[in-house]
User: What shape does this take?
Amino acid sequence: MVYAPAVDSRPLTVDFFMILLSSMLQRINPWFYVVLSALLLFAAWPPLPFPFLIFLAFIPLLALENHHYQVADKPLQYYFQISLTFILWNAATTYWTWFASPAGSMVAILLNAQLQSLPWLLFHRTRKIFGDKLAYPALLMFSLSVEYLHLNWDIAWPWLNIGNVFAGSVWAVQWYEITGTLGGSLWVYGTTILIYLTLVRAGNWKTWIRPALWLLLPVAASLSIGEKEKYSDSLKELIGFETIVVQPNIDPYTDKFDGMTPEQQLQRLFRLSDSLVTPATRLMFWPETALTDYLDERSLDTEPTVQRIQAWVNRYPELMLISGASTVRVYDKNEKHSSTAREIKQSPGLFYDSYNTALSFRANKPVEIYHKSKLVPGVEKMPYPRIFGFLENYAIDLGGTSGSLGRSDSAVVFSDRDAHVAPIICYESVFGEYVGEYVNNGAGVLGIITNDGWWKDTPGYRQHFLYARLRAIENRMYVARSANTGISGFIDPSGKVLAQTEWWVEDAVKMNISTGTKKTFYAKSGDYLGRLAGFFSVLVIIAGFVRRKTRKGY
Assistant: This one.
């Protein structure tokens, strides 16, 4: 068919393309939306360098929901399609958890996908009850609420919370010092909804002003904050410390807990440390579980390993050494034990706790102890033990730290004169509000000790390192990161990587870093956006129940 142009023919306009695109969105097979959304989410996620694809990634899901809302209201099919989207994304982005436990990885991927699907199911129901005006803001609130839940309940797995997507592009989110990563999630969901509504309503070009502002104003604010941060008085007033991070590079599968003896591992740590330490060194970090010989906390001073390290540290009066360790505490028969304590099979009636621990060594001072508090579900703790306690014996074994571990009740800060350090252990570095607790307790340097070798040479260890950049911005503090293997290095308060090691090499890095003296709004306020979103989400859900009851005539 040949179309004759109008007499006053003009070039195709933006308006025409918007109408065409709007029509296409309503005609595409809904299963295509499932695959497209999963692919866009995967492509946006670090370490891939395309984070701004995230602003397109949920548009196919919004189109999918609209299909079920207007054309084919099939609740089970809608649930399956939404769930499949998140299963595909989780599998593509966190497949590396398979190396630690195939069964555990599958469970984590499936459960996380169900939780991520929940806001979309609630959104669909809310839209059917209240219509568009409330439903789209409710989707934003539901999404933030679920992310907040995922930071705070027993099955916490916030790895794929949407605000983390900018970990490789920190220039765009310098305002995380005010909002934390939930602010990034708010930005993404809000902008995406506006883009989608503008597309489907097919207005003229002026209707794009609002989504463009939502997209661009936070970037402009970030660039402005970044420039200001470079020259702020708070950075000029900082105190510098010579700091060393050590990466011993011991294979967690073949050497860490079996092949190499604790003595051989200690010798490697000493050798790498001796290569850089000076009398002026103030801080040194050894990685998570650097000491594997299950040190007895009741008699730490008599442990041969502790005595050797203490003698070495005594040679450097200015030094504070922070090291990861596997430790235990055995309770006396008449002593009340914790809920995580386990009975010693060979000695009925005797109980003990195991800990993933950070130890602080200073010259001629007692050793200080902190127990990892944010434990990995299914690896280091059994979620909701009263319900799932019978599964304790099936916990994933990551080299001696399996089963439910004991934990500290609060974020402990290691201090030595003017040095105040947060001993953040591995998984804890993913929790922005919890890292802020260290800062509120006096920390001026964020020290992260971890063992990322479990994930082999995959995006897993890269993502974990990049997330540390977000913690630096949220608290405007330097990060010193020591990994058994993975990436060790230093990050400045703006999230810039100052130095880093390569994967799978023995190494140690030294740098002068500074201590923070001021608390950011986010450090003081925590994840307030999540709490607000949770409050409004509950109101919407209650209102939905009331509306349904009213319609049914109750």
